[in-house]
């Protein structure tokens, strides 16, 4: 019998009001950066007790939601990228982390890449999470990520769209699966920090003799967009 896991489409989350002090702190940081199985499958969760409660790694396949990731991103005042899990391999579920450099992207005015005074906005992926269904020779991962967008000195109200790449690599760091999407975020100069989240699924084959935990998943902004630096 074949199993399927529902896919939750990427959704746009509204801008939330923030204290003026938080907004100014975000802009200051932004300018500084610019300058410088069927039946009973094996199911694991990347969440710890902070989100789901109970401290157990066992969870339902629908426990990972965009709302949880969005709440985690909003609560992350430092904005540092990280997983909602402990970061360790959980029962063979592949790790899911932002790619080192592509976990953020800064968009500048045309012809002014690298100029801190020309920053329009900056996107940052700050949280990731995943749950796995592990079957013989195959893994299905329900994954999610969230983050924020900060307006820069040249930021404007409107909608910003960020292409996102998610991919799976094996122990040799060769890509075995990929997912491509876009995240749209509403920006407002009166509330210069906005948030986004997405939850989707990806399935990949496990090579003979390999273990699911030897694979890794990465999420990254696609920098092949105008003004990206």
Task: Explain this structure.
With 229 residues, the chain is mainly beta. It has one domain. Helix content is 13%, strand content 39%. The protein is built from three helices and ten strands. The strands form two sheets. Strands 1, 2, 4, 5, 6 and 9 form a six-stranded mixed β-sheet that branches. Strands 3-10-7-8 form a four-stranded mixed β-sheet, with no helix packed on it. The N and C termini lie far apart (47 Å). The relative contact order is 0.23.
Major sheet characteristics? 6 strands, mixed
The helix count comes to 3
Task: Show unreliable segments.
Answer: 1-61, 85-90
Shape: elongated
Overall structural domain count: 1
Q: What is the residue-mean pLDDT, rounded to a whole number?
A: 74
| Helix proportion range | 10-25%
Task: Give a summary of the structure in a few sentences.
By secondary structure, this protein is mainly beta.
Write the layout of secondary structure elements.
Elements: H1 20-35, E1 42-45, H2 49-52, H3 66-75, E2 82-83, E3 95-98, E4 104-108, E5 119-135, E6 138-151, E7 158-169, E8 175-187, E9 193-205, E10 216-221
Parallel strand pairs: 2-5, 3-10
Antiparallel strand pairs: 1-5, 4-5, 5-6, 6-9, 7-8, 7-10
């Amino acid at each position: 019998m074949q199993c399927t896991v529902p896919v939750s489409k990427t959704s746009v989350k509204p801008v939330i009001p923030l204290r003026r002090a938080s907004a100014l702190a975000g802009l200051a940081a932004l300018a500084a950066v610019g300058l410088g199985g069927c039946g009973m499958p094996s199911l694991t969760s990347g969440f710890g007790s902070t989100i789901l409660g109970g401290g157990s790694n066992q969870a339902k396949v629908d426990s990972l939601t965009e709302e949880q990731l969005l709440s985690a991103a909003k609560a992350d005042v430092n904005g540092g990228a990280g997983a909602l899990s402990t970061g360790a391999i959980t029962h063979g579920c592949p790790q899911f982390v932002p790619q080192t450099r592509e976990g953020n992207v800064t968009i500048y005015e045309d012809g002014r890449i690298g100029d801190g005074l020309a920053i329009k906005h900056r996107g940052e992926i700050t949280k990731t999470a995943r749950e796995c269904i592990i079957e013989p020779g195959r893994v299905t991962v329900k994954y999610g990520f969230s983050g924020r967008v900060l307006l820069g000195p040249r930021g404007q109200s409107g909608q910003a769209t960020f292409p996102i790449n998610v991919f799976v690599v094996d122990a040799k760091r060769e890509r075995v699966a990929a997912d491509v999407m876009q995240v749209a975020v509403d920006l407002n100069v009166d509330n210069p920090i906005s948030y986004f989240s997405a939850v989707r699924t990806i399935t990949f084959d496990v090579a003979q003799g390999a273990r699911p935990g030897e694979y890794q998943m990465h999420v990254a902004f696609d920098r092949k967009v105008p003004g990206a630096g």
